[in-house]
Prior knowledge:
The protein has 452 residues and is an alpha+beta fold. It folds into 2 domains: 2-113, Roll (Ubiquitin-like (UB roll)); 126-414, Glutamine synthetase/guanido kinase, catalytic domain (Creatine Kinase, Chain A, domain 2, 2-Layer Sandwich), CATH 3.30.590.
Amino acid sequence: MRKTMDKLKEWLHNNEITEVECVVGDMSGIARGKISPVDKFISEGEMRLPESVLLQTVTGDYVDDDIYYTLLDEANIDFICKPDENAVYLLPWTIEKTAQIIHDTFDKMGNPIELTPRNVLKKVLKLYEERNWKPVVAPEMEFYLAARSADPALPLNPPIGRSGRIEKGRQSFSIDAANEFDPLFEDMYDWCETQGLAINTLIHEEGIAQMEINFRHGDPLMLSDQVFVFKRTLKEAALKHNVVATFMSKPITDEPGSAMHLHQSIWDINTGTNIFTNEDGTSSSLFYEHIAGLQQFIPKMLPLFAPNVNSFRRFLLHTSAPLNVEWGEENRTCGLRIPNCSSQNRRIENRLPGADANSYLVIAASLLCGYIGMIKNLKPTSPAQGRSYEIKSSPLPCTLESALESMENCDEVAEYLSVAFAKAFIAVKRTEHENFKRVISSWEREFLLLTV
Length: 452
């Protein structure tokens, strides 16, 4: 730890940092932590947070006491957060020179906290490491830009671009439509470069003012960190330009939802080759088994890919989102697409995760599903041909309630991710759902108030 702090001290000094944001990503991907003067950060070397943070919902509430006290100490003690020297990022938008440092979490005995998403991903990566396999991933993040509004009851409106007009109609892949927000994206790219984020292509997606940023392929933990940081970065760039950026899965009625498409392949550490490909260039048995694992276990772990009530609004017919776990070559109507690429770059694109999901948990769950398929030698279905939206052979749970029930009954979640994490995640999401059910929607008032 001292060596880590010496390295961090040198970096902080060389970059003239005066403040440090010490952060941990919670179940919903929200940055929790403390802002510390740099001298205090260096002298203390670690941060402490109350255990209650681990069971905090997106609304700031906590799970019921009967679950809370089976998972955490009744005294609401602290857990220990230690900085990761490989997860240090400058914050270009702050007035003071500030660094954001992602921390790992431990109990007082030095054991990794099972409830933190970053540790969940590390646990899955350890499974691969034990078999001399190295996963490689590339996330694609979709999001919407919208006009600022102080009233959450009002629908989102498209923002005004450089031309002084709002976007009309569908502008998929339009360069001019994307350039309407060029000043915002220039800042975004500059800030991402400053932070070392591996972003690549910017695309205008199908929805009005809907965009997509692609990340370059790389290490799953590093890219999970970078997606976590990117979300904050984009939101700050948008606010600077008087608009908002949202990663809600389905923020606008009758517009396409936003996904976190995940490309994944597995490499042999010893040979440096893609285990999805045989020596003769054909698809390997491990490739098909990986697909089969995704097919069998994504429906059982769907809340890790679609964690909110809003996530399931994306899974509707005629919304451009895949509605099943079919697989097919170059087929974007399938939940699992096999891109057309060279044999050594053979990979699977998981198109089911929503942009609102926690990047650590999405990548952990997607890799875990494929891993189980490989170690259990599962067999996939035949590849789908043509339009697959209406295929009923591999349905997904259609509500958060039913998805949480499926996850609760999935033995593999508890076996590989821990009983404690499974209980905690499900409890947090059920608490959020109970809060949601208390809200009376505008639809109910519009169609039921005077008619029933």
